[in-house]
Amino acid sequence: MDINHSTGENVITSTKGYMWFLSLNIIFCAWLFLRDTHHNGLESLPLVLQILCGCIMSLSLINLIVTVNIKKNINEGFYHKILPAIVLVLGLLWAVLFFNFTLYYQSPLITLMMTIMVLLPATITFFISGRLLFLFSTPLVLSLLYVEIFLKHNFSLPQFIGAIIMLLVIYSARYILLEWYQRVQRSEYEKNILIKKLVQQAHYDALTGLFNRLSLTRFFEECVSSLSGNKKKLFMIVMDIDFFKQYNDVYGHVAGDKCLIKVSQCIEKSLRKESDSAFRFGGEEFVVLTVCDDISQVKAISHRIQQNIAHAHILHKGSDVSSVLTISQGIAQWQEGMALEALVEQADQQLYKAKKNGRNRVCF
Fold this sequence. Notes:
Elements (H helix, E strand, L loop, with lengths): L4 H9 L2 H25 L6 H25 L5 H29 L2 H19 L3 H22 L5 H47 L9 H14 L6 E9 L2 H8 L1 H18 L5 E7 L2 E8 L2 H18 L14 E7 L6 H17 L5 E2 L1
């Protein structure tokens, strides 16, 4: 049920809860100063209590400043390494403070209440990291037990049991908070997985894994925007598997789906990752958007697609042009002000010409 130490402690220092805890340390010490000043005058406050309160306030203030800087992306690696030591020192300072407070006021019950006031925000803050909570709380609890067992003239079993119960409450509360946190984390993880699935369904073709037709508009607009101020040109390749209906008739639709997957893999293998995008336009029709310097680069892409499909050696007994699967392609170049529909229409015209002229070819 425990979270990895370093992960949990990284989470703690990146949350507002840790800053809240440090702020409460400062406020509580300031209250102790004001309380004793109001009742007894500052001169009557023992020097050791003044020093301990000052140390806690200073250490908390320094850590609060460092934590604010960490949230502003200052290097945080070293701070995370020394965080357990910082928490232990704070716990020891509070333990010594309450020990001396008990000796000075001779009121263990008040000390117990103030200890609970300190441990409650510590439990809320450090519940993710059991190590930090243990380092902070153990000195305080041991201090209470030491006072109860060794310094009091009359040992009080109920007081002793109360301290033990307090310790049990702290750690049981920690596990309840941790369980709640992990449920939230799981819920967040499941939500992110669902979002990724929805994005996948919205932008990608379920069968081939290529971008779907709906994504074409967004990519087209991005490509047009990228052309601003440079000499590159946008081209569209529309391609169609030759005699795909006959392929389905001969081999069946399951084999047809496998064929579409293989063709999409051949297309992806032929593209340049930085400037080309492939889409399943519908049925056996595919589209490629590519930003190139000239038509020779586009033709090279088309040639690679034809070669990779030929090397895949997908048998096609229903084809009139080859014993293996082939593809026809039409290329169109985008002109300034041209809409996506117009570009698709031009590429379709070239595809129709490639089919009319015998298929298994590229027309531009």
